[in-house]
Design goal:
Order of helices and strands: EHEEHHEEHHEHEEHHEHEHEHEHEHHH
Shape: elongated
Distance between the termini: 23 Å
């Protein structure tokens, strides 16, 4: 940022008050690097932070409440947060997840990160309240922001196509792929109940992740092709009526599917490294962080041929039509039956993953903050 000038940067840090998910991991990884690059930081949340040792950073202040409900979280974001930001006289505000408060001081430069436009392109897969709030709050945030970060070129193009914004306001910055966790040596596949080869699904359990078609596709593969290989499903419960146990029972593959739920980063690392391949046939993704996490440890990938997913995986994956059970089935069969292909995809995947970096993401993000300040100054002079 500007030489010899130290800024105070406020961050909507609510996602650090929850177990890591995709956007929460993005915030943690980028912010962990940003605070080591100078300036003063104020992290705001509706309840205490559970991710990160921010108290040990001399240039970081943490301000939280103790609200638990979703309603109070929303009220906090539009009332208490901007009041705190005003009292702290912040220079820059960063909204790392689609939204910003309405009542930020006009003098404050605003940077907004948009991960996807699910509410526009796959709204039926969202919780109705979240869809409604995104449809109301995201357009305002896009207009108010001085600079916008998207996590993929695909999402950048979506934003530019859907909203009348100045050229150069949107900057895609790809995510990194490594997980900031060391493998806990006390955890092994056997302690997780995994005693056979397996392929892996990672993602929040909700409609957009397309688990119903995935499970149906797996059930259609002949036993002679599957052998003893299992499907391991990892991810916390999201919204919607996605009952994995019921789906598995419906297709009579209870002995071939293991559901682990939400797991810690060290367990997730182990699962990625030990899987035959990752399967992620989402209907829509703004980026698809598990894809890159898998590629970064040499695990082959099967994913969808739409939205940002081909951009992330390059030539390092098998692409399928997420709306076609037969396409997903054929992709899984190809992966299971062709170890030579898996080795090839692993090698390509490591090279693809090397193009992405959390350090690079943090460096580019800091430059965007500088641009936001300059843009705000220019606006104020008009």
């Amino acid at each position: 940022m500007e030489k010899f000038h130290r800024y105070k940067i406020g961050v909507d840090a609510r996602l650090l008050s929850e177990p890591h998910t995709g956007i929460g991991r993005y915030l943690f990884e980028v912010l962990s690097r940003l605070v080591d690059m100078g300036h003063d930081w104020v992290l705001y949340s509706h309840r205490p932070l559970v991710n990160g040792d921010w108290a040990y950073k001399k240039n970081v202040a943490v301000k939280t409440c103790a609200f638990q409900s979703r309603v109070m979280r929303m009220i906090w974001a539009q009332s208490i947060l901007p009041l705190w930001a005003k009292r702290d006289s912040i220079d820059i505000f960063w909204g790392p997840s689609h939204r910003i408060p309405y009542f930020l001081e006009d003098r404050v430069a605003v940077v907004l990160t948009i991960h996807d436009l699910v509410w526009l392109h796959a709204g039926g897969t969202m919780r109705p309240l979240s869809r409604y709030l995104d449809s109301r709050l995201m357009p305002y945030a896009i207009t108010r922001a001085d600079r916008i970060i998207t996590v993929s070129k695909h999402t950048a193009k979506d934003v530019e196509n859907e909203f009348p914004i100045p050229s150069g306001k949107v900057q895609p910055i790809h995510l990194g792929g490594n997980i900031s966790a060391m493998h806990d040596q006390s955890v092994s596949l056997s302690t997780l109940g995994i005693n056979h080869d397996y392929f892996l699904f990672v993602g929040t359990i909700e409609p957009r992740k397309n688990l119903q078609r995935l499970i149906e596709a797996f059930s259609r593969i002949p036993d002679s092709d599957v052998g003893s290989v299992k499907l391991v499903i990892v991810g916390g419960k999201g919204w919607g009526s996605v009952d994995v146990a019921a789906l598995v029972a419906q297709y009579n593959i209870q002995n071939s599917v293991l559901v682990l739920g939400y797991v810690s980063d060290d367990v997730l690392n182990l699962l990625y490294k030990s899987a035959l391949f990752l399967v992620m046939p989402s209907l829509y993704e703004g980026f698809g962080l598990p894809l890159l996490e898998a590629l970064s440890v040499g695990t082959p990938v099967l994913t969808s041929n739409c939205s940002s997913m081909p951009e992330v995986v390059g030539d390092a994956a098998i692409l399928v039509d997420p709306y076609s059970v037969d396409s997903i089935k054929m992709g899984i069969q190809t992966m299971l039956s062709n170890p030579t292909l898996r080795v090839k995809l692993s090698e390509i995947g490591l090279k693809q993953a090397a193009l992405f970096s959390w350090d690079k993401a943090a460096d580019l993000t800091l430059k965007i903050f500088q641009e936001a300040v300059l843009t705000k100054r220019f606006k104020n002079q008009l």
